[in-house]
Amino acid sequence: MAMATQTEKGRQMSPFFQQIIGIAKVLLSIAATMLGLLFVTFFIGRVMPIDPVLSIVGERATKEVYDAAYIKLGLDKPLIVQFFKYVVDVVQGDFGQSLRTGFPVSDDIKRLFPATLELATLGTLIGVFVGVPLGVIAAVKRGSWIDQVARVVALIGYSMPVFWLGMIGLLVFYGQLGWIGGPGRLDIFYEDIIPTVTGMILIDSALAQDWGIFRNAISHIILPACLLGYYSLAYLSRMTRSFMLEQMSAEYVITARVKGLSEWAVIWKHAFGNIRVQLITVIALSYAGLLEGSVLTEIIFAWPGIGSYITTSLLSADMNAVMGGTVVVGLVFVLLNIFSDLLYKVFDPRAK
Amino acid sequence: MNVFNRLLTSAAFGVAVGLTSFAAVADTPPNMLVIANRIDDVTTLDPAQSFEFAGGDASRNIYSRLVNFDPADLSAGYKPDLAESWDVSEDGKTITFHMRPGVKFASGNPVTAADAEFSLRRAVTLNKTPSFILTQFGFTAENVGDTIKATDDMTLQITTDKRYATSFVLNCMTATIGGIVDMKTVMEHEADGDLGNEWLRTNTAGSGPYVLGSWKPNESLTLTANPDYYGGAPAMERVVVRHIQESATQRLLLEKGDIDIARNLNPDDVAGLGGVDDVKIANELRGRLMYISLNQKNEALSNPKVVEAIKYLIDYDGMANSFLKGQYTVHQAFLPRTYLGEIADKPYSLNIEKAKALLAEAGYGDGFEIGLFVREAQERIEIATSLQNTFAQAGITATMTVGTGKQILGVYRSREHDIYVGAWGPDYPDPNTNAGTFAFNPDNSDEAGATGLLAWRNAWHIPEMSNATLAAVEEGDRNTRGKMYEALQREHQMVSPFAVMFQKNEQNGLGSEVEGFSMGGAITGAGYWKVTK
């Protein structure tokens, strides 16, 4: 009886309630994913053969200093208690203090993530606006010289070590030609002049209407962004090409051609229209990959981003920082997934 | 034109950059010193807690100390800084410092004996990692009220638990932990009885040539000149230390004139800068030593002939001229060059025949098997490989065990190694810092657990030499004390189970116009206030 009423109710539920439940479901899945992520990183962190106390107090510390730090970190408590306490803190927005920088992890991330966001966004834009058209053309003109060129470009992108390419880029465009700024986000001379609003220098300098700094920031970001853009382009163009090839041989494309539609309309309206959904997933994944931070690119270009932060923290057993960074990266993945789900609904009438 | 430019930039910056030159301004401004360095080891700027290289560099330029080294003449030893002069009592236990009059902190507060009292007491009470530099003189949180005392505004008295060489105490006062902080400013920022520890982590309150501008961990550290510095305002009004991890990147920036000093160049990049105009290479010997030590619990290794043979089985010059080129020089005594009592004797070189004869005398003519314990660092593994090679030529089969710092140190501290491939950096600028660990082991029993002493870690039983080390600590006359360390090291070279092999040589790339920069030698941190360009 009760069951029946419930189903009855369910059927009659207003769209508003359905939406609430939908949102609740999404939030719940985010929470579950994040908890799993925390659990795994936490325990991996604890079994690593690195001593976090030693990395704070140094090798020469006396036993009393060592013990005091050990207890202060709560390492004397059982693992499960430590984990539970950590989760409670995280829920309140407290990731703890980074052992390595001495600052709250949330402050570090607030400072570093915008640098990564700025670089990854620009890189992805370059990847999308060059890679996708390249992939489409390569598919349409299959076997032509354009297709071959696109293939070579992508292959080089896959196989060239970013370290080498970045260094050569710096040597040529900064060292020899002097067209661009060197490593770092700005010339040292310009640092600490504009107020920090978003942490993204391009946006902050535009807000402050300081075009000198804006130009300087572009001259610094352009090479690493092109580099990341190139890697994302290589991937996106290959994926676009294969999606397009599949569509181009489909019957509806032949029908459209028979109908006498222009080649432009056939390619961009019909075939491309059908791969948009797949493409969004691929782009979102590639974007998320860049937002994780590209360690080598950050190191070569002295770019203070999240990738090298997590890596160096990991190497010095700074688990608060590693877990904080991982949670942020995890959140980025989840949010981008939700975002691409939303875009599906816009582009694909069936998903509505 | 301007509008056009702006439109161009905002509309199509990606393309535009290829066509227009956004080239950076070449050459740093004349009143600004820009340094590329690895600063990711800085965790705090509190002088009572800071114990890392980059933090020590910053601290040296921010905090004046009672006595200090002159960056232009490090070998002269300590000189008056905030203390203008000092007297030592008859029994050698009490030192009375007379403060320099008219000196002000960057905040404007006058520097008084009360500030010095506060700073030293604070360092002892906080009891952070470097506190042993002060507490080794018998200061404790309980007794600082009596032992560290300002008797009036301009006079500070410190009383040690027994007689120590004055040079020992004063050398320790030049360490980072001897930095004098502005009591009033610090106590305004005290939280939960932490004596301002948290605030001083990211802020500074000193009377030195510079004040902290900003510190962004792993990114940059900016110092601005203190125009009221009693020694005269520094020529460089701003010093920016930027964290640049990669040697090749530092080199590129230096070649382009975007930085003045590159602190972490690898040998390839140093060589590459050889022919470049407007760049010069500076060399300074630093405190770090590379050594191997032989565990005396191992039967073969406890034989003095075997110990001597092994010292002849090390290819000192071969290593220094190949993979360590420029980074290390051959050095065979436990005190780094530029320390009081340094010696330059190098009695050992690679001599397979002599080693074979010694091994035969010891009854190991057919060689033996032994383990080499190495931390996973490039240069140490290369050294161990070279040792394996030369040992094998005399029939000794060495097996390498490579592990993380925690694993290998664990083995070393519990005296379970055979041969340890190690590095040692002095903790404070007095010879006792190394003598007290390489040549001091009053109780060799396992129960003593003196894991901090290298001699104990190698189970080296040396009651007499330990006494000699103690005697050197108490010798009041500085020259006599130096002679004692010379003699101690010569004996150590012959009998100890340590083979000191190399001393660190730091190579920095400098813009050719940079003068007066000091890395701090083996004894202290970098000094920026005498730099001109």
Walkthrough of the structure:
- The complex is a heterodimer of chains A (352) and B (533).
- Chain A is mostly helical and 352 residues long.
- Chain A folds into 2 domains: 2-91; 108-351, Orthogonal Bundle (MetI-like fold).
- Chain A has helices spanning 2-12, 15-47, 52-57, 63-72, 79-91, 105-140, 145-159, 162-176, 201-207, 211-248, 251-258, 263-291, 295-300, 306-315, 319-347.
- Chain B has 3 domains: 3-38 and 209-284, D-Maltodextrin-Binding Protein, domain 2 (3-Layer(aba) Sandwich), CATH 3.40.190; 53-202, Dipeptide-binding Protein, domain 1; 285-506, Dipeptide-binding Protein, Domain 3 (Dipeptide-binding Protein, domain 3, Roll), CATH 3.10.105.10.
- Chain B has helices at 2-19, 53-62, 113-126, 132-135, 144-147, 166-173, 183-188, 197-202, 247-256, 267-272, 304-311, 316-321, 352-361, 378-392, 405-413, 432-438, 454-457, 463-474, 478-495; strands at 32-37, 67-68, 79-80, 83-88, 94-99, 148-152, 155-159, 210-216, 220-225, 238-243, 261-262, 279-294, 328-330, 369-375, 397-403, 419-424, 498-511.
- In chain B, the strands form 3 sheets. In chain B, strands 1, 8, 9, 10, 11, 12, 13, 14, 15, 16 and 17 form an 11-stranded mixed sheet that branches. Chain B has a 4-stranded antiparallel sheet with strand order 4-5-7-6. Chain B has a two-stranded antiparallel sheet with strand order 2-3.
- The radius of gyration of chain B is 26 Å and the shape is globular.
- The interface between A and B is large, with 56 and 56 residues.
